[in-house]
Design brief:
Length: 376
C-alpha cells in the first residue's frame, strides 16, 4: 500500500512552546514513534507543516542587522524543509534500521495570477497578544489575523499547481525509500513570463493541499492528515461538539470549517477522495496506526451504492435511501440465488450490515459475490 501522511507543524511545536531545537526534537521522536509502524510493508511518503518554524526564521531574519532585507519565504521554506526533514530522517532511521529514508528540498509551482496574492490567509509564526501584534503590523508591515484567542501573521497561500520534484519522489518510492518531501507545502516557485525558468516567490503553500496533490499524483492508496485533534468535530468549539467518524466529501463540503485550520484539511481530503475514490483520514498524530485501520479519527470515503456513512453525517433521507437499497439488493440476491425464506434473508441482511460496517460495500456486484460465498 502507498501511504501519504501529512503532519502538522503544531505537532513539532505546540502552541505557546518556545521554538527550542531540543523541544522540537523531542516532539519529532514522538512523531516518529507514531509514523514508523506505517512503514511496515508499505510505501510511505511523509510531508509536514512548518508554520511555527518558518515564522521563527522569518523573525530572526527580520532582526538580522547584517542584511538589508529579510530572507524571502521561498528560502525560509527551504530552510525549514532541511531542518525538519533532517530531524525526521534521523529518527526514522533510528526507529527503522535498514530502511532507507530520504528528505528532499522540494518545490511547488504556483500561478502568478492566483488570487491569494491579493488576499493573504496562511498563519505563520508564533501567537501574539493583540498589543504585540499591532506593534508588529506597524513596524514590519505585516498582515495579521486572529487565531484562537491570539493573533498571528498571515501571508499569501496560493494553490499548489504542480510538484516539480515528483519524478525524483517516484524514483525513491519505487526503491522502497521512505520519502520526506514537500514540507511546508513545498518551496513556492513560479515560472517567470516568457523565460520558462522557475523563481522563488513570497508565499507559503498550504501543506494539506500540497499533500492532497502529492497523494493524487503518486496514486496513493490513502491520505492521512495527522494533527492535534482526535477527529473532525461537528459543532466544534460548542458544548454539543461531537466527532464525525465517517463522512463523504459531499457531506463535508456542505459544512463550514475555518479557513486557517480545519478548512484546508477538509478541502484536501475531499479533492483526494473525489479524484481517486480512495479513502482519506483526519486524526491525531499519536493515533496514526489506528487511524489507518479506520478505528479512530474521521474517515472520508466516497459514497458508494449502499455504503452511506453513519452517525451524525447520515441524514434521515439518506438513511431511508440506504434501507431501500439494502432491501433491493436483498431481493435481487434472493432471486439470483433462488431462495427467499426468512433465515436466508436474515443471513443476507447480516452480510450487508457487516460489509457496511467495514465500509467496503463498493457495489451491488461485490455484495452479490459476498452473498454467494456466504451461502456456500
Ligand atoms: N471542526 C473542527 N474539528 C476539529 N478541529 C477543528 C475544527 N475546526 C477547527 N479546528 C482546529 O483545527 C486545528 C488543526 O488544524 P491546524 O491547522 O491548527 O493544525 P495542523 O495543520 O496540524 O498544523 P499546522 O497548520 O501548524 O501545520 C485543531 O487544533 C482545531 O483547533
Ligand atoms: Mg494547518
Amino acid at each position: 500500500m502507498r501511504i501519504v501522511a501529512a503532519l502538522g507543524g503544531n505537532a513539532l511545536l505546540e502552541r505557546g512552546e518556545p521554538p527550542e531545537s531540543s523541544i522540537q526534537e523531542a516532539h519529532v521522536i514522538k512523531a516518529v514513534r507514531a509514523l514508523a509502524p506505517l512503514a511496515a510493508g508499505n510505501e510511505l511518503v511523509i510531508t509536514h507543516g512548518n508554520g511555527p518554524q518558518v515564522g521563527m526564521l522569518a523573525l530572526e531574519s527580520a532582526h538580522d542587522s547584517a542584511i538589508s532585507r529579510p530572507y524571502p519565504f521561498d528560502v525560509l521554506g527551504a530552510q525549514t524543509q532541511g531542518m525538519i526533514g533532517y530531524w525526521l530522517v534521523q529518527e526514522l532511521q533510528n526507529a527503522l534500521p535498514g530502511r532507507q529514508t530520504a528528505c528532499l528540498v522540494s518545490r511547488t509551482l504556483v500561478s502568478q495570477d492566483d488570487p491569494a496574492f491579493t488576499h493573504p490567509t496562511k498563519f505563520v509564526g508564533q501567537v501574539y497578544d493583540e498589543q504585540e501584534a499591532l506593534v508588529l503590523v506597524a513596524s514590519q508591515n505585516w498582515e495579521i489575523r486572529q487565531d484562537g484567542s491570539g493573533w498571528r501573521r498571515v501571508v499569501p497561500s496560493p494553490e499548489p499547481a504542480e510538484l516539480l520534484d515528483l519524478p525524483v519522489i517516484r524514483m525513491l518510492l519505487e526503491r522502497q525509500t521512505i520519502v520526506v518531501c514537500s514540507g511546508g507545502g513545498g518551496v513556492p516557485v513560479m515560472v517567470v513570463n516568457g523565460t520558462g525558468h522557475a523563481r522563488g516567490v513570497e508565499a507559503v503553500v498550504d501543506k494539506d493541499l500540497t499533500a492532497s496533490l502529492l497523494a493524487r499524483q503518486l496514486d496513493a492508496d490513502v491520505l492521512l492528515l495527522l494533527t492535534d485533534v482526535a477527529a473532525v468535530q461537528d459543532g466544534y468549539g460548542t458544548p454539543e461538539a461531537r466527532p464525525i467518524r465517517r463522512a463523504t466529501p459531499a457531506e463535508l463540503r456542505a459544512r463550514n470549517f475555518p479557513a486557517g485550520s480545519m478548512g484546508p484539511k477538509i478541502e484536501a481530503v475531499c479533492r483526494f477522495v473525489e479524484a481517486t475514490g480512495k479513502p482519506a483520514a483526519i486524526g491525531q498524530l499519536g493515533d496514526a496506526q489506528a487511524l489507518l485501520a479506520g478505528q479512530v479519527g474521521t474517515l472520508i470515503a466516497p459514497a458508494h451504492a449502499g455504503a452511506q456513512p453513519r452517525g451524525r453525517c447520515v441524514s434521515r433521507a439518506r438513511e431511508t435511501a440506504m434501507n431501500q437499497q439494502k432491501a433491493q439488493a436483498l431481493t435481487q440476491a434472493a432471486c439470483i440465488l433462488g431462495r427467499d425464506d426468512e433465515a436466508f434473508r436474515l443471513a443476507l441482511s447480516q452480510v450487508w450490515d457487516a460489509a457496511f460496517e467495514e465500509g467496503r460495500l463498493a457495489a451491488l456486484d461485490e455484495l452479490q459475490d459476498r452473498f454467494c460465498v456466504c451461502m456456500k
